[in-house]
Amino acid sequence: xxxxxxxxxxxxxxxxxxxxxxxxxxxxxxxxxxxxxxxxxxxxxxxxxxxxxxxxxxxxxxxxxxxxxxxxxxxxxxxxxxxxxxxxxxxxxxxxxxxxxxxxxxxxxxxxxxxxxxxxxxxxxxxxxxxxxxxxxxxxxxxxxxxxxxxxxxxxxxxxxxxxxxxxxxxxxxxxxxxxxxxxxxxxxxxxxxxxxxxxxxxxxxxxxxxxxxxxxxxxxxxxxxxxxxxxxxxxxxxxxxxxxxxxxxxxxxxxxxxxxxxxxxxxxxxxxxxxxxxxxxxxxxxxxxxxxxxxxxxxxxxxxxxxxxxxxxxxxxxxxxxxxxxxxxxxxxxxxxxxxxxxxxxxxxxxxxxxxxxxxxxxxxxxxxxxxxxxxxxxxxxxxxxxxxxxxxxxxxxxxxxxxxxxxxxxxxxxxxxxxxxxxxxxxxxxxxxxxxxxxxxxxxxxxxxxx
Length: 453
Fold this sequence. Notes:
There is one protein chain. By secondary structure, this protein is α+β, with helices and mostly antiparallel strands. The chain folds into 3 domains: 1-119, Rossmann fold (3-Layer(aba) Sandwich); 206-345, CheC-like (Chemotaxis protein chec); 379-442, Surface presentation of antigens (SPOA), CATH 2.30.330.10. It has helices at residues 10-22, 33-42, 59-69, 84-93, 105-119, 122-125, 152-163, 171-178, 187-200, 213-219, 244-254, 270-290, 306-309, 341-354, 362-376, 392-396, and strands spanning 2-6, 26-30, 47-50, 75-79, 97-100, 126-129, 132-135, 140-143, 146-147, 205-212, 224-232, 236-243, 297-303, 318-328, 331-340, 381-384, 414-418, 421-431, 434-442. Helix 2 runs parallel beside helix 3. The longest helix has 21 residues, at 270-290. The radius of gyration is 28 Å and the shape is globular.
């Protein structure tokens, strides 16, 4: 089961996180109010432990927002506020339990188990395959009448495999769910992130690493273009860096040149900075398109000076550091991107949940799956009347109100084009005050050669 801890005291959050992980929970931590609200509402958690005094957004506001979006999610308020009116306002706002600091971890753990028992139906809290049973709340595993003792990671692995019985699960999916990516698991993280990138972003990946933000900044070259952006809907910062050795050839290319010329260290002019901002906007747009299935949007914030870069994120926070290689005719460089680990972890979870595959049961279900995938594909559909030719002199002589007569009968069919592939002949018709298309016949696909997929 996965728990979100919204707590700005990093020492306390780390203590609670380690204790819950030792009890087989997967835990995410957020020390920022707006980030905690976005994570709690956009992604699936079994329970939220919520502090009331968070930066940028207070706990009561977060609680009300969660209740409006997810009325059944258990929320345990963990706070130093002990006044009766504070307890009453939180319980009225939708809190399921209220625990004051300082507290005993054993009591916190017991309250969490009680909330999970109340919120889960028996079939959801106890997983069973033949005589193997796993109690997700009490953390017990039995085979027949024999109890089985498992370590934290063994329990989490068994739970994940039992929850996905009959599905194909990949190594990356297992690592993400069992070894929480907000925790440093060394080189395995690189493998997981590279696999993630191959799925959702087509680019030349030079490296993908799980670094602290301080380590990320230390690796950046001195001569660089640095800017910040906002990741929506989480509303957290990310950082993009572009080597100036490749930035100037890109500017030359956009100004009509060939993207050539050696790099000489100098300051970026105001016009060049505007052009670079346009380049970055294009990069963010393409990143958004690549990750649109996950609902992630990149929004340009501003260019940052190197001296201010360290204040964009907490220096010890983990980041997903991505490096992409860029090659021009006479220059090479890198594009580096730093994304908070909490966001990348949540995205991997969402990707695994949304893209899970189950074999269809029979031809009817298989047909429905294919139909749903076709309807969800981002193909462009056009109704095109082809072979319309107009002499150039007629176009030159056009003026408002003049009719341009095409040498094309109104009874001639048009072509319905889906993803650049002509599929049907259709007739353009009128229905009341609207234009409609009546399909006539399917256009035979050419034989031989490669078919479009």
